[in-house]
Write a structure and sequence with these properties.
428 residues; monooxygenase activity; FAD-bd; five-stranded parallel beta sheet; disordered C terminus; globular; monooxygenase; 15 helices; FAD binding; alpha/beta; 2 domains; FAD/NAD(P)-binding domain; FAD
Length: 428
């Protein structure tokens, strides 16, 4: 098959898929992105969402290669790079204003809009659920047939699985599946937090806030609409905790009593953090009447997950190396994958065009090298993530996390008020 017949499908329209698509578009290489979700409206993309901090060697490098760095910077004002660490009683053990951080924060929605707005409308097929992927050998190479149910079946020379934790494309390459991490996550949002709840706004600060204790966590990130997005991380061996606890299907407001009264959850936490959780639950239900509480188990792939290389298919992002968010590496690794894979595809496409040779044949050795490098690179980050999780959700995670920041930053700044003196919630 020549480069003119290189049929490329990217499964998944998250940061990995959109970044890869945009990099290929800039190089004039045809592709199609298939995304399960319907196309989000501008109104939906303006709503508060999780914040993502992009790192210089990975996420930011991809943004620069896309030619979007200046536009990206204009979207990073909602969440400062500041950090605060608190124990479960609200005592502030560490705080900074992000002076030494070089990891600007952008909302997930803003990043989606930034990337997708620079793609041709026809490049993304929204509302397409991949039911199965089947590879076969043809006289010209390996062909993968994708079954989109009512949208029909289509064949491609290269299929890139950017389809997340429960990737359909992964089943082409390996039978390894994610396993439960031992942590449940609950998410709620408080809009206009400064005006409505100035004390809570002061508690969580302008950036990221982490309260830790008894193997649980209450964390916050500031975001659009002067919001505070609150995350509860609960350590439990019960993968089906949402159902067994009775929280599944109920509202966030209905969940707060169980969360705050049960001593195995947040019942032993102090009043400042309990107030933050109660307000977040009530505000979430007020904004979304009748909506079920956003609770989910967190999953991870085994560290160093690999697969036997197969021509015509590969994985990037969470589909390849799903991990918990304890090091902020997920989106960065995904965009780094896209950056490196786009380079390999571009080289193969150019080589096939010049030699009138097979695109797949030119790509295959490059893709093998890409996969080997990706596994090695992401294994290191997965080990770091696992280590961070053990630190954060130990019996005294707050003390361990504060000491971590002081070791990393304290000696560089030399500021005595960056954690040497505890600050109680009443002092805020």
């Amino acid at each position: 098959m020549s480069s003119s017949r290189a049929r490329i499908a990217i499964i998944g329209g998250g940061p990995a898929g959109l970044t890869l698509g945009l990099l290929l578009h800039k190089r004039g290489i045809p592709f199609i992105i298939f995304e399960l979700r319907q196309k989000p409206t501008d109104e939906q993309l303006a709503k508060p969402s999780g914040m993502l901090d992009l790192h210089e060697e990975s996420g930011l490098a991809a943004i620069r290669e896309c030619g979007l760095y200046d536009q990206f910077l204009m979207l990073t004002g909602d969440c400062a790079e500041a950090q605060k660490v608190s124990d479960m009683d609200g005592n502030i053990l560490y705080t900074d204003e992000g002076e030494l951080s070089e990891r600007p924060e952008i909302s997930r929605h803003a990043l989606t809009k930034l990337l997708s707005s620079h793609l041709p409308a026809e490049a993304v097929k929204w509302g397409h659920k991949l039911l199965s992927a089947t590879s076969s050998t043809t006289p010209s190479g390996t062909e993968t047939e994708l079954d989109f149910g009512p949208h029909g079946k289509q064949a491609y020379d290269l299929v890139v699985g950017a389809d997340g934790a429960w990737s359909q494309v992964r089943s082409l390459l390996t039978d390894v599946k994610p396993h439960y991490s031992g942590t449940q996550s609950i998410t709620a949002t408080v809009r206009q937090v400064t005006a409505k709840y100035p004390r809570l706004a002061a508690l969580v600060g302008r950036g990221s806030f982490s309260a830790l204790g008894l193997r649980h966590g209450v964390m916050s990130q500031r975001g659009p609409e002067d919001s505070a997005r609150i995350y509860l991380f609960l350590t439990t061996a019960d993968e089906r905790f949402a159902a067994s606890s009775g929280l599944d299907g109920g509202t966030a407001a209905a969940a707060k009593d169980l969360l705050l009264d049960d001593d195995t959850l947040l019942g032993r936490w102090g009043p400042a953090l309990k107030e933050l959780v109660a307000v977040a639950c009530d505000e979430e239900s007020a904004d979304n009447p009748g909506a079920a509480v956003d609770i989910k188990p967190l999953y991870t792939l085994p560290i160093g997950t690999t697969w036997e290389h197969r021509a015509g298919a590969t994985l990037i992002g969470d589909a390849a190396h799903l991990m918990c968010p304890w090091a902020g590496e997920g989106v960065n690794l995904a965009m780094w994958d896209s950056l490196l894979l786009a380079s390999a595809i571009s080289k193969a496409y150019e080589a096939a065009g010049q030699a009138a040779a097979s695109f797949q044949g030119a790509l295959d050795p490059l893709m093998k090298d890409f996969e080997v490098e990706m596994v090695a690179r992401t294994k290191e980050k997965a080990e770091e993530t696992n280590s961070n999780g053990q630190m954060l959700f130990g019996e005294d995670g707050a003390k361990a996390f504060a000491e971590f920041f002081l070791q990393v930053y304290g000696h560089l700044v030399g500021a005595p008020d960056r954690g040497d003196v505890q600050q109680r919630p009443d002092d805020i």
